Every structure is written in structure tokens, then in C-alpha cells.
Amino acid sequence: MSSTDLVPTTSGAQAVQAQTHTDGRQFLTFRIGEEEYGLDILRVQEIRSYEAPTRVANAPSFVKGVVNLRGVIVPILDLRIRLGQAGEYNAFTVVIVLNVAGRVVGVVVDSVSDVLELSEDEIKPRPDVPAAMDSRFITGLGKLGERMLILLDIEAMIKSPDFGLVD
User: If you average pLDDT over residues 87-116, what whole number do you get?
Assistant: First the structure.
């Protein structure tokens, strides 16, 4: 093997561009009840197992309390309750820690599935039908084979006056 065998045929800038170029967006997928949802992976800070938070007096039922996450007090919202679903806390229950609207917030979901990349062709516009969930919080529907994902605009949801977290 000669030293020229180790030299890439494209320039460094072209090689980096080829590695970082993607045609789609990445979503963290999770389950609430029988439905599968997706949210922009860039909003996710970390995924933690569920631990009972410290309750906050007079908080809405979907606000489970707060936890101390490495010195930061993080409100924990049960997204299942917020979306009108009942949920039990078990070994699969997780908290997705998000960085949205300049805040760190944890949302409780039944389980996390995986990270998927969806091309623009795989993302369909949100339907114009009455839904239990406010359609302002749905950016579209992701279709991968037989899987259908409800793609959430988690930032709009957290900023909503219904949540009461952002002025």
C-alpha cells in the first residue's frame, strides 16, 4: 500500500459536505397509548428513566412536578395526560428532556422508539379534520411503510398558554 492510497479523492471540504448532507429531517419517535409520535431531534437534550418528581402545589394535573437535573430545576409535564390519555408508570415510562423556548422541560411518554430520518416526500401535511389534539401542535404526518407518525411542534405546544410555562 502506498501513501497515496490513504489520500481521499475529494478535498476535505467536499468530504465533510458529503458526510453532513441529508435530504430529510430527523425525529425522535415515541409512543403514547397506541399512537406513535415524532418530534424534532434537535429539541431533545436527553432521555431519562422516569423518577417521581417533587410535586408543585396548585399545578395542573399534567404538571407532575419538578426534578433537579444537574443543578437545573426542570418542570416535568405528563404529555400523556395533556393529550387526554391515561398512562401508568412502569419500566418503559421515560422522560424526554427538551430544550425549547429557552427553557429545559421534561415530558413523560410511554416509551421511546428510535430516531428516524424522514425525507420531504415522507412528510405529509396535517389533515384538516377535527381532532382531539389542537392541530396547531401538529406539523404533519410522517409515513414510513405502514408506520404513521404524528409529527409534533413541541415548541409551539410548550409555548402555548395552556401549558403556562412561557410568558
Answer: 93
